[in-house]
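Give me the fold.
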Amino acid sequence: MTTAISTSAAPLAPKWSAERAHAWYAAQPRILGANFIPASAINQLEMWQADTFDAERIDLELGWAAGMGMNTMRVFLHDLLWAQDAAGFKQRIDTYLGIANRHGIRTMLVLFDSCWDPRPVLGSQREPMLGIHNSGWVQSPGAAQLADPASYPALRAYVEDIVTCFGNDERVWCWDVWNEPDNQGGGMGYYQQFEAKDKIALVAQLLPQVFGWAQACAPSQPLTSGVWFGDDWTPASVLLNAVQLAQLELSDVVSFHDYSWPEKFLSRIRQLQAYGRPLVCTEYMARGMGSTFDATLAIARAEHVGMINWGFVSGKSQTHMPWDSWKNPYTAAPPPLWFHDVLHTDGTPYRAYEVELLRQHATAP
């Protein structure tokens, strides 16, 4: 049986009203950006650790983003970085936010993440596995922490410190408290063997507490957690699992992930509009699955949906490789079609037409 810790010392602050959420959203520029990790980092740990934090590379890449009209980045943190060196970690976050702000870019900070390797370890990170998508990305919290309620006070302290420190920082526009919390790892099943037993049940108990910890810090920015339905296109709420129900119930603005064809993307928007909240798609654009800038951005403009695609500059994360590269690595040649990512490592566009589409979306009435 899972033991849940009490949140009595941090009473749940009221969720934003729908009116407040819509007023906040109306005051935002059209949200356009990417999930950001510099090409020099394989995962969140390598991005932020003192020895590998690459401010020069971050500055270069965010300059490219601003040049194509992007005003938003979604950036993943990690609880182990805070446990290792809270003061240093917060200073590096501040440095990043300063760089982004100089380029006119605001940031969504992601506190936790259930995707990919559930065995995060601080220190030097492994080199990318040849030809494989996101071969070094790590979860936060890891499986051992998630399965051990004794670790939860440290997770709470991390959330409270980070949200208190940046909860009124205008450079941060939103908090994503947990990325795809009901995801079972990734790697085409490779990581399943390392996941915590009863992971979804554990997350279902912990996720509302995480929202509560963050809300109790009274941030000026909204809270969200991006819903990922996979191939489930049935709108009936009875089919949603406990994690998805919590995400939709507790989010101030509704965020979601969609890597499908335009007609399914629009269907997902219609389903989520029923919740009466502003919508932000915090992951999309997988060319081989039919999710492209060409049609998706036009739908987003018509429906007033914020858009943050996965992948920006091709680098050590190798997310230009498709998901199925975990079963069929691209060791002899690159994929015939990039999966994610917009720019080559040197900043040249994968497709110049896509960059023009992004610029047009940013400036269109």
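The two ends are 54 Å apart (CA to CA).
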